[in-house]
Design brief:
The structure holds 2 protein chains of 2 kinds.
Chain A lengths: L3 E4 L2 E4 L5 E7 L5 E7 L5 E9 L2 E4 L6 E3 L9 E3 L8 E8 L8 E2 L3 E5 L1
Parallel strand pairs in A: 2-11
Antiparallel strand pairs in A: 1-3, 3-8, 4-5, 4-9, 5-6, 7-8, 9-10, 9-11
Chain B lengths: L8 E5 L4 E6 L8 E7 L6 E6 L4 E2 L4 E4 L5 E6 L8 E8 L17 E6 L1
Parallel strand pairs in B: 1-9
Antiparallel strand pairs in B: 2-7, 3-4, 3-8, 5-6, 6-7, 8-9
The chains are: A mainly beta, B mainly beta.
């Protein structure tokens, strides 16, 4: 089955450590995205990539980094510079066609203690 | 970017129709109207989208006002599985005339469905 996979579902880290969240898709989509969601809030865009080896900052990119070396993969690193990293992180992908839908993963809940 | 306004919450009874409103008074001619829904602790799920004409699919209908300043998502017969947060989102076309999944989410409408 085609889809978008995020792992792990739950992640715990100590403050000051970098952590990388995985996002893989087998939908052959060109575009991929990372969103952050805080309790009771909507999603906010962190980074997005429209093509391999290219990515753009979203609305809240500070303290995060990404890479897009393969079409299928778009990992997100939460660095120690991110002041409030505890959140629900969602990855999505879409085609480059006109106004196509975005497909979301099931999310990774990161808790920094 | 154009913004959307939705009620914080709505309630419905099972098997009754639900009309979820969305105001987007600053919408531009190239903005598409998208609806997604999100169940607790899950990623959002696409529901429907449209530009000017009303749209129907297996999940819902989208009614778009003639001036495009508002729209309504219609669930024809609500079920308990339709209880979720519903987001009304505007997506922009880029210079090439295509749109990607770069969506700006608001807080959405929490839909409660009573048995």
């Amino acid at each position: 089955d085609g889809g978008i996979t995020q792992s792990p579902k739950y992640l715990f880290r100590k403050e000051g450590q970098n952590v990388t969240l995985s996002c893989e898709q087998n939908l052959n989509h060109d575009a991929m995205y990372w969103y952050r969601q805080d309790p009771g809030q909507g999603l906010r865009l962190i980074y997005y990539s429209q093509i391999v080896n290219d990515f753009q900052k979203g609305d809240i990119a500070e303290g995060y980094s990404v890479s897009r070396e393969k079409k299928e993969s778009f990992p997100l690193t939460v660095t120690s510079a991110q002041k409030n990293p505890t959140a629900f992180y969602l990855c999505a992908s879409s085609t480059r066609g006109e106004n196509t839908e975005a497909f979301f993963g099931q999310g990774t809940r990161l808790t920094v203690v | 970017d154009a913004k959307t306004t939705q009620p914080n919450s709505m309630e419905s009874n099972e098997e009754e129709p639900v009309h979820l409103p969305c105001n987007h008074s600053t919408i531009s001619g190239t903005d598409y109207i998208h609806w997604y829904r999100q169940l607790p602790s899950q990623g959002p799920e696409y529901v429907i989208h449209g530009l000017t004409s009303n749209v129907n699919n297996r999940m819902a209908s989208l009614a778009i006002a003639e001036d495009r300043k508002s729209s309504t998502l219609i669930l024809h017969r609500a079920t308990l599985r339709d209880a979720a947060v519903y987001y009304c989102i505007l997506s922009l076309l880029n210079a090439g005339g295509t749109s990607y999944g770069k969506l700006t989410f608001g807080q959405g409408t929490i839909l409660t469905v009573h048995p």
